[in-house]
User: Fold this.
Amino acid sequence: HRALVGNQGVEAAAVLVGSGRVELLAPLGEETPVGRFLASRGPGMHHVAYEVADLRAELEALAEQGAELIDREPREGLFGLEVAFIHPDATHGVLAELVSRA
Assistant:
C-alpha cells in the first residue's frame, strides 16, 4: 500500500511483515518533520508505532503520568488511522506513535 499523508508531509508505503507492518517514509519537502529528521540524522529508523484499543484513553493516561506528548489529541495518519505521537524525551530517545483503528 502507498499513500500521501499531507498533514504529516510524507509519502508512505506499508509492507506486511508477519503479523506486523513496516512503513517506509519519504518526505514531501526538506522543511517537513521527516525532511528535517533526515537532514539532521540521515537515513534510518524514524519511529516505532504501537496499536492501542482506545487512543484517547491512552493519551489521557500518559498525560496524567506526566509524559511529554507531541499530540494531546489524535490526528489522521496513514490510511486514515487515528494516530498520536509521544515525545522522544518520554521514551528514552525514541519517537513513539500510538495508532488506533477506531
